[in-house]
Write a structure and sequence with these properties.
It contains eight helices and seven strands, in the order βαααββββαββαααα. It has 229 residues and is α/β, with parallel strands linked by helices.
Length: 229
């Protein structure tokens, strides 16, 4: 449990951390940021969605956009793209009262992504972290939510089971440990590097764990000499 607001980290960072711990550290510890087509399109999509002054009510569904969320347990804070509340026919541990609204309501977070579903869990852990924030803030249980992918214009429903929740808690704990140490890990070079907006700042070939900079430069010089005959 994180008692002070000063200890809170950005919730959106858990997606970066799940993708690559070095990328997260470059952004959140060393304060690097670089934009490519993916980040520009992603920001534009969120600007269209995150409007804290625009809410929508449609029958048994209430849509809240750009909702501030926080979890002292995880030590994370951020903005939820969309939280949908669905009217519940009965009072349960998953339903709550909303100010100015009759009946009981169930929370359902929705995160918007520019691309398509990933092979890894980076998007799912971000959504689950949002759900944990909502549970802590509202005193309810949030069992599922959705990831909307703009490229395929489709929602993918995510269930927040115990394994995913444990994964979120583990990632958030490691984020805080790394932030407290203030150290950026060396790169683990791989196919994922080509998708990273920080590849120029990261220089994964220089910092790959099996190579020192000295050895890398020595090898590079030998390659140049060989190519020149």
């Amino acid at each position: 449990m994180h008692q002070n607001e000063e200890d809170l980290l950005l919730l959106s960072g858990i997606q970066h951390f799940a993708f690559c711990e070095r990328q997260w550290a470059l952004i959140h510890i060393e304060q690097y940021w670089a934009e490519n087509v993916r980040t520009v399109e992603g920001r534009h999509l969120h600007e269209q969605v995150d409007d804290p002054f625009f809410n929508d009510s449609r029958g048994g569904r209430l849509i809240i956009r750009g909702m501030p969320i926080v979890s002292m347990k995880l030590g994370l804070q951020g903005i939820a793209d969309v939280v949908e509340f669905y009217r519940s026919e009965e009072k349960t541990h998953r339903a709550i009262k909303l100010d100015g609204r009759d009946g009981w309501w169930r929370a359902y977070p929705v995160e918007y992504k520019r691309g398509k579903p990933k092979k890894d869990d980076r998007d799912a852990v971000q959504l689950c972290a949002q759900a944990i924030c909502l549970e802590e803030m509202l005193g309810t249980e949030v069992c599922k939510g959705a990831l909307y992918y703009a490229q395929i214009r489709h929602r993918e429903e995510i269930f927040f089971d115990s394994n995913l929740r444990m994964r979120v808690e583990e990632l958030s704990k490691r984020m805080h440990e790394m932030f407290a140490q203030g150290k950026t890990p060396r790169a683990t070079s791989g196919k994922h590097c080509s998708l990273c907006s920080l590849i120029e700042q990261c220089q994964p070939r220089l910092t790959y764990k099996s190579r020192s900079v000295k050895n890398y430069l020595g090898t590079a010089l030998e390659e140049i000499k060989t190519s020149r005959g």
